[in-house]
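The passage that follows is intended for readers who have already worked through the single-chain material. We present the inputs for a multi-component assembly, then the predicted structure in tokenized form, and finally a short commentary. You are encouraged to pause after the input and sketch how you expect the pieces to fit together before reading on.
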Amino acid sequence: MDIDFITQILFAAIKTGTPLLLIALGEVICEKSGVLNLGQEGMMLMGAVVGFLAAYTTGSAGLGIIGAILMGMIMSLIFAFLVLHLGANQVATGLALTIFGTGLSAFVGADVVGQTVQGFQPIIIPLLSDIPILGKVLFTHDLLVYVSFAMAGAVAYVANKTRTGLILKAVGENPHAANAIGIKVLRVRYCAIMFGGAMAGLSGAYMSLVYTPMWIENMSSGRGWIALALVVFASWRIGNIMLGAYLFGLASIMHLVLQGMGWSISPNLLAMLPYVATVVVMVIISADHFKEKLLAPRSLGKPFDPRQMA
Amino acid sequence: MIQITPRIEASKFMTFASPLLAILLTLIFGSILFTVLDKDPLEAMHLLLIAPLSDAYNISEMLVKMGPLLLCAVGLSLCYRANLWNIGAEGQLLMGALGGSAVALQFVDSEAWFALPLTLIAGIISGMIWAAIPTLLKLKFNSNLILTTIMFNYIALYMLLWGVHGPLRDPEGFGFPESAIFSDATLLPLLSEDGRVHIGILFAILLSIFAAFVLAKSHLGFQIRVFGADEPAAKYAGFNHKKLTWCVMLFAGALAGLAGVSEVAGPIGQLVPGISPGYGYSAIIVAYLGRLHPLGALLSATFMAVLYMGGDLAQIEMGIPIAVVGMFQGVLLFFLLACDFFIHYRLTFTSYSQYKH
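Having made your guess, compare it with the prediction:
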């Protein structure tokens, strides 16, 4: 293995990890507000198909991105209304969102399967990209990868250093106390859920406009679910999420690595790797029951109904 | 003025009316959608809901789809009642098909009477194993059951693909990813001369009655109900949570495995990559629509099978993509969850005159 090969692998790991990072950043904010949205996969697929359709019809990838983000937000609003206003079970509603999104995306995308669009060109950042190895790995990507870097920084900053982050935390840890000091719990949760939807839509657009770039039914192939697991074993910490996303990017391209090293294993067995890795890491992390309880937002998955406060 | 007020007791009426209301709303949604898409809504609805029940062949095909849906949904109903979020029916079904096929392919040239029972047992055990691993991980390592079962669905899918592309591929199949065709000795007996409906559907119906009986009359069923209603109370009563979890999960795995092996040893007759059009996921909706009761699942599985069959017909007759079925399922679950709101809340109409006093 030479340096070039390693550089290429790391570059690909970042590219493959980016959709996971984007969607996990949205989900972590959502979970910090105490809401577990299992509809990630559905929102991502809808983002992917709408982003693709918008870019395909208008010829502008930028409009595709905007369309995908809006679609993700609309999807998340359905979820938000059901769980926040009607007190529906978050697990069941999230599953419904995924089933709905999977079906609807296949339905509206049926006509454009196999078409391609002009995606984003890589932007090579001057000077920084000249750093040996790291420069090539980090700074020769397309726009959305840089956006994901920036989003990771912004989310970490807002969540940990600002008043907004504190409110979010208060709502997620103890909505009753937050309500008592005058925070509008449902409004905060609406915002958090919609941010999650926007990021899921963006992540979908990355899949259909940059990564492939085309629309294929079910093209997210479980990334929404892996992102959910990623948030758990990153212990709701942004830095860990970033690292985890790239590790999973690496796991997803392992078949290329092994082929490069001259191994021959069934591609179907290698395709299991990200899912197996998810299970293994989840087992290792959550075996420490105490730690997980300590780190998870305390009201995660529990409904909050201001009607019953009076 | 319309006000929302909490009910003092959960409404029995709404518990049963809610699924019907949700189905009605879904149909209205569908009609609007078809009108927007410039397809005749009446024709589409006829194809989706009535045509599947119109002749013997269609009913037989409908029953073929109902079997796996019902088997998976009965298992999931018990899981969800016990607060075990098993999303893994799809993977357990696929593993049942894979495990069953591995055994059935040993009997390709055989007429042995025990070939079919062995095939079915292999399928059931494969499904149970696939349910057992996430259960073990949950109980031993406290891992999240939803996420592990989902991951196991994907792993099962690739196991199946590996099987049909690799060790189980028909050596004389010109490289197609298909197994050899099973011998008659490993096929489930057909129920009627025309059509593909086989005795698997009877297994499914009997098992759902059995599960209803267990739930209503046995100590185990009582424990499941208490755990679902009030977990701390169940623990306080000293119910063994581990044992209960194992029983329910293995039962669900066995049923999903049986569903899988019944597909390959039933209507399909060989192992192919496309065993299931997402039966395991649809079964989640079937379970909810059936109010998490095995007998309710019997009704809702019938409805869902009609919808699947109708989706096939609508695709052939009107060129409506089959994906519309998946979308309707999602919409149906949304409406159901929304209607369920009124189990615990009601609308009260207050007139202004009340405020005068």
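Commentary: Chain A has one domain: 3-123+137-308. Chain A is about 70% helix and 0% strand. How closely did your sketch match?
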